[in-house]
Each structure stands twice: as structure tokens, then as C-alpha cells.
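Predict the 3D structure for this chain.
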Amino acid sequence: MISSLNKFRQLGWISLFSLSSFTAQAQVDLVPIMSHLPEGASVSIIAKNLTTNQIIAEYQSKTFMLPASTQKVFTALEAKLALPEDFKFQTALLTNGKIENGSLNGDLIARFTGDPDLTSQQLFQLVSKLKQQGIQTIKGNLVLDTTVFASHDKAAGWVWNDLNICFSAPPAAVNIDNNCFYVNLDANKSSGSLITVDVPSAYPVQVFSSAYVAEKPESDYCLLDAVVSDNNRYHIKGCLAKQNKPFGLSFAVQDPTTYGANLIKNYLARLGIQFTGQIQVPAKAPSGVLLAEHYSQPLPVLLKKMMKKSDNQIADAVFRTVAHQQLKRPASFPLASHTIRSLFKSKANIQFGNSIVVDGSGLSRHNQVNAETMLQTLEFIAQNEEQLKLLETFPIAGVDGTLSGRGSISAEPLANNLIAKTGALKGVYNLAGFMTNKRGEKIAFVQFVNGYSTSTDPERKTKRAPLNQFENSLYMALYNE
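Done. Predicted structure below.
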């Protein structure tokens, strides 16, 4: 880890972003390009030729916009600034007692540090190592150490009716299978009949249903909803049209700590290890002797998955982990926000100013960032790519990640040329990344489109044809500039 700004500079890290370049004449006429967008959309665009150091396109680049998942560009850079390349998340089992004659005389401590890639199978293998050490009985309690994080596991501004959905699952210290589980619904019934739900036995949850099969035209307007109570109990309400086949429905785990504790108890029983103690969640990290541990993939692998697939769990786990590592205290989302602002200012000379950075994933509707700040971040990444190695994490147009099927840029000369982090929420379509123009010069660009809608009719899905025309026109213009 780089311990000081001087050492940081000695490693060759530079930030040459020049605000004076914003006064250069923009060469791309954006007016006809923006005319493709539907009325009511808000747009912020900036593009810079990094070879000539000139701004070549600019429109409302100081206006605050919702960054959505382009926020992960900030998170990726923050991780590289603060964490060592070989950083891994640890999940460990410890004890404050001793193993004697097949009995663990003391507490079993399960330490979770927010590993966003931990699977239930990996957790089972970890617990299995107790059996391999001859443990047949645990005479203490099960203590879950979740002290790396503090306060809420959901950031301010996350949309309330998305919280039960997997992409908004809480990135808690205990994070197993992305804190997501799946059930099967059977709505192949007559109108008015109750929808039945099948829950795989592997999940320590309870799911009930009072939802019913609706007739037309009611089914066009009714929705399914899940009301969650303590100990991960879910009540499915609402209605939907008749479905010919059973279908899967995913839910976010709302109490990850209890979920993890119950999984461990189930695994102990499955392995024949007797346990009759209590579940405890201490406020301070307990100490103990290590019994077994599991490590995640190293940081570069996690960041590549985060950027390519826009993985929210990795982003918010990294966001708070950096704060925990830097300040050596349990990290809340507000503390993580303070940390990224401080790191960017001291190590990259990037100041967020009046921007609002609430989370690492971009899910929050409270985030407010302008295109200039995002462009500064992209330029810093490009200038320091030898050390950062972040360009390889960006999705490639027409090739992989969230850009593999984006029709506006899926054909040559944009395909396999343009790389960018996408950002999408309802009404939000953003891109931030790089491309090479026809002269072989590198272009950094930021596209923020907010408030995008093509219809007031709630029955129609948003149409992307205007967006595709806008994006294709914009990036072809940048290519030909």
C-alpha cells in the first residue's frame, strides 16, 4: 500500500488534467446529435482528445447528473489507490477455546469481512475443515464477527421497491451467494387461485404466498411484492396473469447475519457436529485462534468482474473495505464517502467539490456527479495505466461485459474499439470510457443521459431507438473528428 503522497509520486503517478483545456473550441457539433433524444431528456457530454490535450465535445459538463454504475469507475480507481494488488477478502473460523477429545471447548467464531464472491459451497467447505480436525461437538456459542462494517448495509437513496431484488441485495459483512436466493412460483392455475411457492431446502428462509392469479385486464396493472419480516421471512403479495410454466423468482437476503448463522448451523448438523449454543453478534471484534480460512480471488480479478458485469456487490464491498483499511474502524457508507473524497484529493488531485458520492455501486438516487469530474478520473487512469492496469477491466463494445450487445456501438469502427463503463437506472443511460479515432488518437469521453423516456403510457416499455441513434451519431462523430 502506498503510505504517502511523496512515495505515490515517486512511483510515477501523475495527474495532468488541465482545466484550461475546457476553454478550447469544441470541434464536434452536438446540436444535431442531441436532437435524436426524446423531449425531456437531460444531457451532459464531454470528450477530450488525450493525444492533443484538447476538449473536442462539451455540453453542460458541469451539471450534476445521476452517474448510475459509471460510479464504479471511481470505485475501481479508489481500490487501486488504497489496496495492495494481492488484497483478498478473508472468511475465517476461529475459537477462544481448545479442541480436546473431539470437543471444541469454547466459542466458534465466524469472521466475515464482506467477501462479495463467497459462495455457500465455499462456506460449507470451510466449515468442513472443523470435521477434518476431529471436532464432533461445539460446547460454546456461535459468534459472528461482522465488525468490519458499521451501520446500515444499504446506502441512502436506494429505491425502496428495489430492495427485495438481487441487484439491490445488501453488501453486508456476511455476503453469501451475493446475498440472493431463488424460489419457484406456480401460477398455472385458474383466475382467483392462490399462487404456490416452492423454496429449496438449502435456503434458511421462509416464504409464504397470498398472491393470486388475476384475470385480464387486471393482470396488466397488478404487481407482485414481497413483505419481509424478522429472520428472513418473506410474504409474497399481489397478483399476476396465469403462467403456463413454473418460473423462478429471486429475492435479496434482508438479514445477512442471521442467514449466515443459520447456514453454518445447518452445515454443522449436516457434518454431524453437535451444536446447541446461542448465536452472538458482538460489537467489537473477538480474538481467537485460527481454525480455518478462505480467501477470495485477488483484487484485480474482483475489479475486472465488477467493471465488466457491473457487479454491485463487489463495488459496495470494496467501497466500504477501503474505508475500513484506511481508517482502521468499522466502515459505514458515510465514512466510505469521506474516504474516497480524501483519497482522490490527496493521491490524484481530483476534487469532488459539491458532488455527492453516497455508494460505490451507483445504485443511490442521491449520487450527484458532473461529467468534468468523471473525465478527470478517466484521464488520470489513462495517464497512470502502467501502474493501474484498469483499462483491461472496461467492457468492450460488441465483445464483452455490459457492452457486448449494445446495438448503438456494436458495429465497426466502434466495435472492439470503444471501451466504457455503462451506467443504467430507470431513465438513465450513461457511458464513460475511451475510444480511438480514425487517426489513431485516444479519446476519453463521458455521456450522461438522465430523464430518458419515450412514452407516458405505463404499459409500454421504454424504447431505445432514439438512444441508439444518439449514441451511434455521437461516437461516430468522435471517431471521425
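The chain is about 25% helix and 20% strand.
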